[in-house]
Structures are given as C-alpha cells and as structure tokens.
Amino acid sequence: MRRADRLFRIVQMLRSGRLKTARALAERLQVSERTIYRDVRDLQLAGQPIEGEAGVGYTLRREFDLPPLMFTPEELTALVLGARLVKAWGGAENVAAANSALARIEAVLPPELATRLDAIALYAPGFMMTTAQRKLLDALHKACLSRTVLAFRYTRLGEDESRGEQRTVRPLALTFWSGVWTLAAWCETRNDFRTFRIDRIAEFIAMERTFTPKRGERLEDLMKKLRAQPRWQEATRSRLE
Q: Does 122 share its domain with 209?
C-alpha cells in the first residue's frame, strides 16, 4: 500500500469518533505500531485535527467532517445490498473493499440515515464461497486485467475429479450466474472459446507470459458469437415479452 493511501485510510478510520489505538490501526493496515505513530505525527503536523496520544489512542475531532452524504432510503438500500452481495460472493480483496466502502459511507451519513443501515433486511449469506475460491477469484480477475495466460486442470460438471483435463487459456472476463462464478476464456487447448466454472478449476498456475487479444479471440467476439445463438435470441425475446 502506498503511504498516501495509508494516511488517507488512517484519517477515515479515525473519523468514526471512537478512540483507535495504534495497535488496532497497525493490525488493520498491516504495518508496525511505530509506522502508525510516525504517520499520525505527520498528519498532525500537516494540520489534521487528530487528538490522543501513544498508549491511549487517537480520534479525529468531530467538527472536522465532510458534508453529510444524502441518499434516499431506496438508494441506501441498494448500496448496502450491493456491498453485502460483494461480501458474500466476491473475492477476498472485494470483501475488504466492500467493508471499507460501507465504513466510509456510514462515517459521513447524517444520523437519521445512519440508523437505517442495520435495519435493512436484505441479506446475502456467503457461506458457499470458500476462502480458496475467493483467493482464486482474485487471481483470475488479476489475470484478466493483466492478460496473463493461465494453466489449470479442469473437471467438467458430472465428471470424476480424477478425470480432469489440463487446459491452457487466455482469460477474458468473469461472470456471476446465480451463485456460480465462471471464467470466459480463449482456450489454447481447444482453439476456441470456453467457459469454466471456477469451482471446477484445480492446480491453477499463472504462467510467465501474456497475450494480446487477436481478432476473433476477443471478449467482444465471444459476445457476438453468443448473441447469434438461437438460445440467446430466445432468452432475449422472453425478457421483452
């Protein structure tokens, strides 16, 4: 994490009004307590109204605040539900980001809206996503962004895991389908587009080579191919009727 990002997060965490110890801040940011002491001192010298002392804790004076965020109850419900869905079905990094986003929103909500957060009765249990799957989802997303070629063993649904086949693919995008994450990719093994359920992927390796999407092998080419299929057209018609 860049130092500028860490300083920003320290200020955000202190805005709750509750006393935060250097140890708690250090554990949250995964740095040493000495680093926190130095950062807090630098923030104070820069004019941030941080009160407290080493060994006791720190907080930000309440008069230092951003203007309150105003949302309609429906907008707030959508934001909280979205964050809960991300926490339930997202990667490990997505979960941390969703928690951070909710904390930031709560910190700047006016009191009458802040009380609504816990009262929103829309939940998304995430017990079906294992820690391994969350980490794999993060790794697959990074590979899509960096265009890194992947290798893994894949077992199709209904097959015995011992019969999994080795695949080498160029990852294009991740899609969530009613509780199942899938990876859309150009499969070098099959020389065609393929979609893989991430819960059927094993022995995952990010290879030391990248790729440049070629015409006919890009995500937009896959979408064009899907839209031309009768099944896709029928599903589109049914949504419009």
A: no
What mean pLDDT comes out for the span 188-195? 94
**Residues 21, 96 within the same domain:** no
- Per-residue pLDDT reduced to its tens digit, 112-146: 777 777 788 888 887 778 899 999 999 999 999 99
Residues 165-198, buried b or exposed e (16+ Cβ, 10 A)? eebebbbbebeeeeeebbbbbbbbeeeebbebeb
- Cα separation, 113 vs 106, whole angstroms: 9
Residues near 39 by beta carbon (within 8 Å), at least 6 away in sequence: 3, 6, 7, 10
Q: How many domains does the chain have?
A: 3
pTM of the prediction?
A: 0.67
171 pLDDT above the threshold of 50: yes
Q: Where are the alpha helices (DSSP H) in the chain?
A: 3-14, 22-29, 33-45, 73-89, 92-108, 111-114, 131-146, 219-227, 230-240
